[in-house]
């Protein structure tokens, strides 16, 4: 049994979770950080390279829906907080088959809640120790040209992924209402940045462009998303985990509403400058020439935008990264990754 108090992070080998683990280890060297991740296709230990030897860090490979395993973690460590990222996260996969989404996003969340509740209740700390659930603005559904989601917008999920996340949010809230558990939920807009799985839009664009393949854009590319740099998201989670009010939901936005096609064009123009030699090798004048429009995703939400004034006013947070500078950092990271993958093949 470890005597130190531990922060349990789930899904810390994924995109946002791995950025968060690195950020927390750097900022809070006194915290003991336990990262549980099943390492599905989306989890990658390379995202955490360099942290293995850090003395206050522990990685456990396992499934959050495995009740025995979660109970053993709570028995072994004095878990004083949970930040719950682990999820099946890709909308297209949920449209193909929702089974894993229900297992991880709903059952997994319930197992974590139940185990934390029992452990903290036994210690008389149910109202003190915090369960922070990471969610998405997709639970609110889709918007027309105008308006924004706020924390009071009723859930109206449109695909199995967002339905499973909305279900998880409801469960988390219910543990707050029913047992007085100290829960908090954050719903953020689309994240971008280093360490994202290659199946998602931005890495797909960069990898296809560098390989000289066509860059697929769903429908007319005019779907609007609000883009949040992953490090800004991590900073908001840190702030809300420590200072957010019990039982509350906070939206986290990037303040960068853009159509997918605009984001893709910006990435191509950054690549045109950074990778002019590669451009010459594939006989193009601009990577934008590779853009091609494909059949739209089923139930493709038209626009998401979140009103995060509650977070800005109550906790003084704001997104710091401009979209252009965040995209430059992101493109540079994936170019390096693409080159190292190309070298190893
Ligand atoms: P990701 O798919 O990159 O990472 C998910 C991680 O969870 C992976 O490492 C995977 O191995 C792990 N995992 C999956 N099932 C598991 C299980 N049963 N047990 C233990 N680990 C399991 O996802 P992400 O983009 O980093 O998203 C993290 C969280 O943030 C999710 O809850 C997601 O809904 C939410 N979110 C993401 C975005 C975004 O733009 N990426 C936006 C808003 C909210």
Structure description:
This protein is an alpha/beta fold and 345 residues long. The protein folds into 2 domains: 214 residues, Rossmann fold, CATH 3.40.50.720; 90 residues, UDP-galactose 4-epimerase, domain 1. Helices cover 43% and strands 18% of the residues. The chain contains 11 helices and 12 strands. Strands 3-2-1-4-5-6-10 form a 7-stranded parallel beta sheet, sandwiched between helices. The protein is globular, with a radius of gyration of 20 Å. The N and C termini lie far apart (44 Å). The model has no long low-confidence stretch (mean pLDDT 95). The protein binds nicotinamide-adenine-dinucleotide. Nicotinamide-adenine-dinucleotide binds next to helix 1, strand 2, helix 4, strand 5 and strand 7.
Main attributes of the structure:
single chain, 345 residues, Rossmann fold, UDP-galactose 4-epimerase, domain 1, 7-stranded parallel beta sheet, 3-stranded mixed beta sheet, dTDP_Gluc_deHydtase, alpha/beta, binds nicotinamide-adenine-dinucleotide, 11 helices, dTDP-glucose 4,6-dehydratase activity
């Amino acid at each position: 049994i470890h005597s130190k108090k531990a922060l349990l992070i789930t899904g810390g080998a994924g995109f946002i979770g791995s950025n968060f683990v690195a950020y927390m280890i750097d900022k809070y060297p006194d915290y003991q950080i336990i990262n549980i991740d099943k390492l599905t296709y989306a989890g990658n230990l390379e995202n955490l390279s360099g942290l293995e030897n850090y003395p206050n860090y522990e990685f456990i490979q396992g499934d959050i829906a495995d009740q025995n395993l979660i109970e053993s973690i709570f028995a072994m460590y004095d878990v004083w907080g949970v930040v719950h990222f682990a999820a099946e996260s890709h909308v297209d996969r949920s449209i193909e088959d929702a089974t894993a989404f229900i297992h991880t996003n709903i059952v997994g969340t319930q197992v974590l809640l139940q185990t934390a509740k029992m452990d903290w209740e036994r210690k008389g700390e149910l109202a003190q120790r915090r369960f922070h659930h990471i969610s998405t603005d997709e639970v609110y559904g889709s918007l027309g040209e105008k308006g924004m989601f706020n924390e009071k917008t009723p859930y109206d999920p449109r695909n199995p992924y967002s339905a499973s996340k909305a279900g998880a949010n409801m469960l988390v809230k219910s543990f707050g209402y029913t047992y007085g558990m100290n829960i908090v939920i954050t719903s953020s807009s689309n994240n971008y940045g280093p360490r994202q799985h290659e199946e998602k839009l931005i890495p797909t664009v960069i990898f296809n462009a560098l390989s000289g393949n066509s860059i697929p854009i769903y429908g007319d590319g005019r779907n609007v998303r609000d883009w949040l740099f992953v490090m800004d998201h991590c900073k908001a989670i840190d702030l809300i985990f420590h200072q957010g009010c019990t039982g509350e939901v906070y939206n986290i936005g990037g303040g960068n509403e853009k159509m997918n096609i605009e984001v893709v064009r910006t990435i191509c123009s950054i690549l045109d400058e950074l990778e002019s030699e590669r451009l010459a090798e594939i006989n193009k004048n601009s990577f934008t020439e590779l853009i091609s429009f494909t059949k739209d995703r089923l139930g493709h939400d038209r626009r998401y935008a979140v009103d995060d004034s509650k977070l800005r006013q109550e906790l003084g947070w704001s997104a710091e990264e401009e979209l252009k500078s965040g995209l430059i950092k992101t493109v540079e990271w994936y170019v390096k990754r693409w080159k190292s993958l190309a070298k190893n093949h």
